[in-house]
Write a structure and sequence with these properties.
heterodimer, A: mainly alpha, Cytochrome Bc1 Complex, Chain D, domain 2, B: alpha/beta, FAD/NAD(P)-binding domain
Chain lengths: 109, 425
């Protein structure tokens, strides 16, 4: 997963209270995955679990977008370069880092 | 991005956020057990996301007395006759079939937070490593004299928990002769769904306008002003329903006479109507109160907003309408769904001895129908503030619709179908 490749985890490994050293990296990746997925899950209430909308309705289908398309759209909503009914209001509540993580989790690539 | 900083902070939190030692769990050769009480927007979402975020490594039992999920959001459309309750009803089958959740059709009658067990009305005792309570709200029927009896007799309905009363309230209005009067009584905030009573006002007025044009709706609000979307609702009432709505703020109902269909007030004169819809004051669900977890004025449950753990009992997490909310955080289905994901992520992390997210974020989106198709929204984003130890609304984020509009009427149904699927699908 691209989300995990870019992680910088070394600093945290010594602090994690796990028993076997061989499982430290796996545990860190798990912890990070939970964080990333639960952050992206804030979008799921409107756009569907994992960004996959229920068929037959008109809510924008974000799982069909690349991570770059999602990140760009969210940044544009945040800066009012892009207008919308509600997303320009919600995007302003997220940090740039959160937007990047959300886009990486939900993007189809 | 600085994820190292994130993990450094969160790892430091481990000292204060005690996890269950996964080695101890493993030695008992059992999976960790999460028990969830209540399968509404909060509980069902928590159950599903514990399974998802743990890659199905944690067993989840979900205890719920009802056969199906019935949405409160959009149920005002049923009151006004624009929609049928079936359109708001979703089976729980997806939770068992797709997510492997063990559904138990029962009520929880007792919780032992020391032994970490729940006992059901049906007599089962179930042990938990982590417990999630999402029982919704309890209507204080005794807070208004005569209401409990009038409600039991089916005369004065609340229809605030979507279900049979929602359908019955529409029938009462539909059966009323043209020229009749409907009275709606709104409790003091906080209550479930801040804009809900005002959307209901629109939907009842919409029905009267289209079907019984000599009739009217009188709204008695215990609050001094419209609690949510005030400007938008006031304008919609003036633009769409002139002559149909008589809105009276600062009018608190203190007694109901079901036989004569009369409301009595703290100060105003008695009022007789053909249909009485009295929404009483409400507090945390009974099981939260009975377990001693409603530690805010014996009404709401205080939680640690990092993981939604009760401040009263370890390993008991509470989400949804039962909690003492953070500043400007509404009691809504959407918010319960969002809280449940924060709780689920924290539960999965704690059961694995992982650090939990030190800065969760939740959003709220609430659509209200002003007629059969035009909608207004209110939205907000709430970031956890480590200094204040609560969620704070992000300044400059969130907001309202400019005016009622049709495109958001379409999105409101999209929202509904997606959140129902995200919750129970």
């Amino acid at each position: 997963m691209k989300t995990l490749k870019s992680l910088s985890l070394i600093g945290a490994s010594a602090l994690l209270s796990v028993g076997a050293s061989t499982s430290v990296l796996a545990d860190e990746l798990m912890a990070e995955r939970i964080y990333n997925q639960s952050l992206a899950a804030t979008c799921a209430s409107c756009h569907g679990t994992n960004g996959v909308s229920v068929a037959g309705q008109d809510m924008p289908k974000i799982s069909q977008l690349t991570h770059e398309q999602i990140a760009t759209a969210l940044r544009q909503y945040k800066s009012d370069e892009k207008s919308g009914t509600i997303m320009h209001q919600l995007a302003k509540g997220y940090t740039d880092e959160q937007i990047e993580i959300i886009a990486q989790v939900l993007g189809k690539d | 991005m600085n994820r190292r900083l994130f993990l450094g902070q969160s790892a430091a939190l481990l000292g204060t956020t005690a996890g269950i030692n996964k080695l101890a769990l493993a030695s008992s050769s059992n999976k960790a057990q999460v028990v969830v009480v209540g399968a509404g927007y909060g509980g069902a979402t928590a159950a599903k996301y514990v399974r998802m975020l743990s890659n199905n490594s944690i067993s989840v039992t979900l205890i719920e007395p009802n056969d199906n999920f019935i949405s409160c959001p959009l149920s005002n459309l049923v009151v006004g006759g624009e929609e049928k309750i079936g359109a708001l009803t979703t089976s729980y089958d997806g939770l068992t079939d797709k997510y492997g959740i063990n559904m138990v059709k029962d009520m929880v009658s007792k919780i032992d937070t020391q032994k970490k067990t729940v006992t059901t009305a049906g007599g089962s005792t179930i042990a938990y490593d982590k417990l999630v309570l999402s029982p919704g709200i309890n209507m204080y029927m005794d807070s208004i004299e005569g209401l409990a009896q009038a409600n039991a007799d089916g005369v004065t309905l609340q229809a605030w928990k979507a279900g049979p009363e929602t359908v019955a309230l529409h029938k009462q209005i539909a059966d009323m002769p043209d020229g009749g009067v409907v009275a709606l009584s709104i409790p003091l905030a906080p209550y479930r769904c801040p804009p809900g009573p005002y959307e209901r006002t629109c939907q009842i007025a919409n029905y009267l306008k289209n079907n019984k044009p000599k009739s009217k709706l009188v709204v008695f609000d215990s609050n001094a002003n419209i609690v949510s979307k005030g400007g938008l609702f006031s304008k919609a009432w003036a633009d769409l329903y002139e002559g149909y709505i008589d809105y009276r703020p600062d009018n608190k109902v203190v007694a109901v006479d079901g036989k004569t269909r009369t409301l009595k007030f703290e100060f105003s004169d008695d009022f007789k109507a053909d249909v009485l819809n009295v929404i009483p004051t409400m507090g945390a669900g009974n099981i939260v109160v009975d377990t001693g977890l409603a530690n805010m004025n014996n009404r709401w449950a205080e939680v640690d907003f990092l993981n939604f753990e009760s401040t009263q009992a370890k390993d008991v997490h509470i989400v949804g309408d039962s909690i003492q909310v953070a500043p400007r955080m509404p009691k809504s289905g959407h918010m319960a769904n969002q809280q449940a994901k924060v709780a689920a992520a924290a539960i999965v992390s704690e059961l694995n001895d992982f650090p939990i997210n030190p800065q969760p974020v939740v959003t709220n989106t609430c659509y209200s129908f002003v007629n059969d198709r035009d909608v207004v929204h209110v939205a907000s984003v709430h970031q956890y503030d480590p200094t204040e130890k609560t969620f704070l609304p992000v300044k400059g984020a969130g907001g309202l619709s400019a005016e009622p509009n049709r495109i958001e009427g379409i999105y409101a149904w999209g929202w509904a179908k997606n959140i129902w699927n995200d919750t129970v699908g």
